[in-house]
C-alpha cells in the first residue's frame, strides 16, 4: 500500500510539531524517519497511524483518503519499543490475538488461525517456542513476537516506533539484519521511527531526515551519506571535521604556521566540512595544505583505527580513520606530529546553508 502525505501539519497550542509536510512512500517500501528528539518524527508517524489528527493536510493510503478514518479502520500494524505482549498469553496466543479479535463473520477458523500463526512463527524463527510465555523469552525474541503479532492481521502498513530501542547493541544489529530479510521476503510497506543513524541507514530503502518539524532530506542511505544537502544532515549523519576562517587572495590563513590554498574562492568567511575518512595523514605538508596536527588518541574500532588529532588551528580536535594496514604503515603513536591532508572538502553556503563541493588544494608532488 502506498502512502501519500499531502501538506500535513500539526500544531499543539502554540507549538508547531510538524510544519506542512509532503512525502510519498511507495508500496512495499521500508522508510526510516530519523531525527533528533523533538523533530516531529513521532507526530508524523502517529498521523499516518490515525492516532493523531493533522491540523491541515491529507493522508492517502493508495487512492483512499484516510485523513478522518479512525485508527481501527486503517489496517495498520504497530510495533513499539517496549514489546507490549500479553504477559499471561503464550507466544502462539499473542500472535493469534488479532485474528481471534475479529468480528465473527471475518474471523478465520481455528485451523486457519493455527496455520497462519505457525507460518508467521516460522518466518520469525520462533515456531519451536510457541507455547512459552513472554517472560520466558529474551528481549530480541519478544520483539520478534511483537512483529509476528503485528503482521498476523495482514496490515496494509506496518509502523514501528524505535522498535529495537530497548535492546542491547549486538541484538539490535542481529534484528536489523533479520528484519531486512523478512521485509525482502514479504514486501510489506513499513515506516519506522529512530534517532539512531546507523539503524536508519542500514534498514531503510529511503531515510527521511527531520529537524524542528520539517523534512530536511529524503534519500537512499548511500546518497544521503554521500550527498547531504545541508550542514544539519551532514552533522547528524556522522562524525564531522570542520574548518573555518577568512579567505584572502585564495588562501585561508589559520594562524602562524597553518593554512590552506582555496584558489577560486572569493574573499570572506568560509566554513569547510569533511568526514574522518576523508582525512589522510602525511609526514610533510602538501603544496596547498599545511595543517599540522598531533595525534592525541588512538582507538581500534572494528575494521578501522580512529585517531583524534589536536591542532592549534582548530578549537575542536579532528578525527581521522585509517585502515589497520594504513595505520601500520604510517607508524603512528600517541604524540606523533604529522600533517592532515583533506581528500574531500565541502563548503557551507552562507546564504542557503547548502553544501557545495570544493576543489581540493594542490596536493603537489611532494605528497608522501
Ligand atoms: N501532545 C502534545 N502536546 C504538546 N506538544 C506536543 C505533543 N506531542 C508532541 N509535542 C511537541 O511536538 C514536537 C515534536 O514532537 P515529536 O514527539 O513528534 O518528536 P520526536 O522527533 O518524535 O521526538 P522523540 O525522538 O523525543 O520522540 C516536540 O516539541 C513536542 O514537545
TrEMBL record:
**Top-rank taxon, per record:** Bacteria
**One of the protein's GO biological processes:** quaternary ammonium group transport
Q: Does the keyword Manganese apply?
A: no
Query: What keywords sit in the KW lines?
Result: ATP-binding, Cell membrane, Membrane, Nucleotide-binding, Sulfate transport, Translocase, Transport
Q: Which Pfam families does the UniProt entry name for this protein?
A: ABC_tran (PF00005), TOBE_3 (PF12857)
Name all ABC transporter domain ranges. Answer: 3-237
By its UniProt entry, which InterPro entries does this protein fall under? AAA+_ATPase, ABC_SmlMolc_Importer, ABC_transporter-like_ATP-bd, ABC_transporter-like_CS, Mo/tungstate-bd_C_term_dom, P-loop_NTPase, Sulph_transpt1, TOBE-like
Kindly list the GO molecular function terms attached to this UniProt entry: ABC-type sulfate transporter activity; ATP binding; ATP hydrolysis activity
- Listed GO cellular component terms? ATP-binding cassette (ABC) transporter complex
**Which SUPFAM superfamilies does the annotation name?**
MOP-like, P-loop containing nucleoside triphosphate hydrolases
Query: What protein am I looking at?
Result: Sulfate ABC transporter ATP-binding protein
Record organism = Halotalea alkalilenta
Which lineage ranks, top first, belong to the organism behind this chain?
Bacteria, Pseudomonadati, Pseudomonadota, Gammaproteobacteria, Oceanospirillales
